[in-house]
Write a structure and sequence with these properties.
6-stranded antiparallel sheet; Glutamine Phosphoribosylpyrophosphate, subunit 1, domain 1; globular
Length: 613
């Protein structure tokens, strides 16, 4: 992976140097710069060399000097695209660089090139022929891209800290973004921590006119559920077979590398599937797998990762996360982020990436499967929530919720009391917000207390409501699938993995997000993904021929850490934050330490926010 940065308008080479220096961890192997002060255009690149290390240096230009690019990502079908472009008369100068394919692809097809790409990317192309800057981000937002227009300057970068290193870009915290942060547990695109700074959303392009820095943002792709209308008697077995075939092809594409490669192996269905299929495409005993364990038994999956490793004869590396190790890493992790992140699994993800990077430069993971195949706990809660809401009068719900809040508190992973309390707190609010409230650190009424003002639900949860309304299917399952795939995956899961991996100069690839696989899975009806309480039903059916029964039938265990216990025993101290209600914060801390409430999510969100003063 790499880091990219640049700007159009006011600024100097010194601004460009500062922006690129801030991206050093994303690309330790080499760096490159280009600027033309006569048109006020500047681009820079930090490189982590994966494909064609010798010839893939950037910025890269076409032979006529009219098109230049800085690129972060991998294009898995670049060899096929190269063949098409060569047939159309384009002559390549590198051996097999996917960066050069993007350059000549843009020259041949323009912005429509993005619809032909299978991969992950964030890139910027200087088009001197049209005097235009073209920016693009991949369909799911696997690679980050920020931009801002201030003081007659349009600037872009892979990371916020790099963007605001430009002298024209001012950074003042956005109050609305902070409210959304506590509402979701992350800051959803296009919002960022700062006013007048945006994330380019997944599946979008941005066109910037070089002479005047005017820009527009266009959507080129959107995830949409379009179930097959004709279902044959044998559709289930046929679909399972096709899923297995498409996933095998996707894994094979992602084994393409000129440097050492490995697999994240938690022992769950998704990572086990990737490990199994990767083992088929590599020489015997050459597959390296990596996992993280925990001292707290309810969070540990070591047994399952060891089982899979032995089954497929991988060379397995395992580390155990202790309280001391986690606390030692926390400040380092926080300093490396662009924005606060409410997902505490960032800790083990960072450690996993750090250990993996000691041995390889590329790793494959199982991200995307839970979103596409209904793998999360809330999918099991939908029907119960629907029944509860239809038979329990609204006037009685507060009393039931109050009683449940007095259940004894446990800090084990996904304990029953945690699930019940989370389940009930969302049911005071519209269905459109259920998923966000289940996942977020605070419910709407608590947000009002925290910020000392009335909260407008339609404004705070605007993204969740928009994706809910956009879903053409009228059932709760499909609307929830769309929420997770379009919102949670982009702004939580993939952001977490990108930051944790890039802080360790490691590239992570996601076979489940292969566009061919996604386009097939999004057409499978929801009742084949979640059936009679069984999550990932059709995926499990596809994997039964290749995975051990213990893995297929095992209960899901999230990649969590025992932060509840750490806050309770004082291992992590909560800072004072001027923007939020001090008395509310004090009460949350006291209740948690006394064991009266499980406020781990709020306390983690607050600790993380405190690192961004």
């Amino acid at each position: 992976m790499c880091g990219i940065a640049g700007f159009i308008g006011k600024g100097t080479r010194d601004d460009l140097l500062k922006m690129n220096t801030a991206l050093a961890h994303r690309g330790p192997d080499s760096e490159g710069y280009w600027h033309d002060e006569s048109i006020a255009a500047f681009i820079a690149h930090k490189r982590l060399s994966i494909i064609d290390p010798e010839e893939g240096l950037q910025p890269m230009w076409t032979s006529d000097g009219k098109f230049g690019i800085v690129f972060n990502g991998e294009i898995y079908n670049h060899l096929e695209l190269r063949q098409k472009l060569e047939k159309n008369g384009h002559r390549f100068h590198t051996n097999h660089s996917d960066t050069e394919v993007l350059l000549y692809g843009y020259k041949e097809w323009g912005a429509s090139m993005c619809n032909r790409l299978n991969g992950m990317w964030a890139f910027a192309i200087i088009d001197l022929a049209s005097r235009r800057l073209f920016l693009s981000r991949d369909r799911f937002g696997q690679k980050p891209l920020y931009y801002s227009y201030q003081n007659k300057t349009f600037a872009f970068s892979s990371e916020l800290k790099s963007l605001i290193a430009h002298s024209s870009i001012q950074a003042s915290q956005s109050t609305l973004s902070l409210v959304k942060y506590y509402a979701y547990g992350y800051i959803p695109a296009p919002n960022t921590l700062y006013e007048k700074v945006s994330k380019l959303p997944a599946g979008h392009n941005c066109f910037v006119d070089i002479p005047n820095s005017a820009f527009r943002v266009d959507k080129y792709w959107d995830f949409e559920l379009e179930p097959f209308s004709n279902i044959s008697e044998h559709a289930e077995s046929t679909w399972a077979e096709q899923i297995g075939d498409l996933l095998q092809k996707s894994v094979k594409r992602r084994l393409m590398s000129d440097v050492p490669l490995g697999i994240f192996l938690s022992g769950g269905i998704d990572s086990s599937a990737v490990s199994c299929l990767a083992a088929k495409g590599l020489p015997a005993d050459s597959l390296h797998t990596f996992s993280i364990g925990f001292e707290e038994a309810s969070f540990d999956e070591t047994h399952y990762s060891n089982l899979v490793s032995k089954r497929f004869s991988t060379k397995h590396y395992h580390k155990t996360l202790s309280v001391e190790k986690a606390l030692e890493m926390l400040p380092l992790i926080a300093r490396g982020l662009d924005e606060p992140m409410g997902d505490s699994s960032l800790i083990p993800t960072y450690l996993l990436c750090r250990e993996t990077a000691q041995h390889v430069k590329v790793a494959l993971g199982g991200d995307g499967a839970d979103e596409l195949f209904a793998g999360y706990d809330p999918f099991q809660a939908l029907r119960a929530a629907e029944i509860y809401s239809s038979i329990i009068p609204k006037s009685i719900h507060p009393a039931i919720y109050w009683l449940m809040m007095h259940l004894p508190t446990s800090h084990t992973n996904m304990s029953l009391d945690f699930k019940v309390k989370r389940f009930l707190r969302a049911l005071d609010y519209p269905q459109k917000t259920w998923n966000a409230v289940w996942l977020g650190a605070l419910a709407p009424h608590e947000l009002s207390l925290l910020f000392g003002k009335s909260i407008k639900i339609d404004e705070v949860y605007s993204e969740a409501i928009e994706y809910w309304d956009q879903c053409k299917q009228e059932n709760l399952l499909d609307k929830t699938l769309q929420f997770y795939t379009k919102l949670y995956l982009q702004d939580d899961i993939l952001t977490k993995v990108d930051r944790a991996s890039m802080l360790n100069s490691l590239e992570v690839r996601s076979p489940f997000l292969d566009i061919d696989l996604v386009n097939f899975v999004r057409r499978i009806p929801g009742n084949f993904k979640y059936r009679n309480g069984n999550r990932k039903y059709i995926l499990k059916k596809a994997l039964r021929p290749v995975l051990p029964r213990e893995i297929i039938n095992r209960p899901k265990k999230g990649f969590g850490v025992p932060i509840g216990a750490w806050f309770k025993n004082g291992s992590i101290a909560i800072p004072n934050i001027s923007l939020i209600n001090a008395s509310f914060l004090k009460k949350q801390v006291a209740e948690h330490k006394a064991g009266k409430r499980d406020n781990r999510a709020f306390l983690w969100n607050t600790w993380m926010l405190g690192q961004f003063k």
